[in-house]
Design goal:
Helices cover 23% and strands 36% of the residues. It has a four-stranded antiparallel beta sheet, with no helix packed on it. The protein is α+β, with helices and mostly antiparallel strands. It has a domain of 81 residues: Nuclear Transport Factor 2, Chain: A. The longest helix is centred in the last third of the chain and has 18 residues. It is globular and about 55 Å long.
């Protein structure tokens, strides 16, 4: 997504349907200032699904955000979200971790950004 206007549009359907009534909870938040006008924020937490009292472990994630201080205050300028998938010691656990990776590679390999792709850099 590029720019503030695209964020609510892209999430409207999610929050109207599948994420309706959910809540996010943070287990840990770390903020590191990189200078007077830049910071990195790392947060770990989960999602409490509609009708539940506790976060669903399958939805535990770590988010990394880049923040920039502008004339009107701090703004997040980049966001990345990764699901937490611990690898256990047994073969079944390892296979349950590897199979989704293999399926992702099989079905989404063509969508991957090639090293020769160009990306427009700039303010959103």
């Amino acid at each position: 997504m590029r720019g503030r206007d695209e964020i609510p549009d892209a999430h409207a359907d999610l929050f109207a349907k599948w994420l309706k009534g959910t809540r996010l909870v943070a287990d840990a938040v770390m903020v590191r200032l990189l200078g007077p006008d830049a910071a990195v924020v790392v947060a770990a937490g989960g999602t409490i699904m509609r009708g539940r009292a506790e976060p669903a472990p399958a939805r535990d994630s770590i988010q990394t955000l880049a923040a920039e201080r502008r004339s009107d205050g701090w703004s997040f300028v980049a966001f990345q979200n990764t699901r937490i998938r611990p690898i256990g010691g047994g073969l079944v656990s390892v296979m349950l971790w590897l199979i989704p990776d293999m399926l992702w590679a099989l079905f989404f390999r063509l969508r991957r950004i090639s090293p020769r792709s160009t990306v427009e850099l700039g303010r959103g």
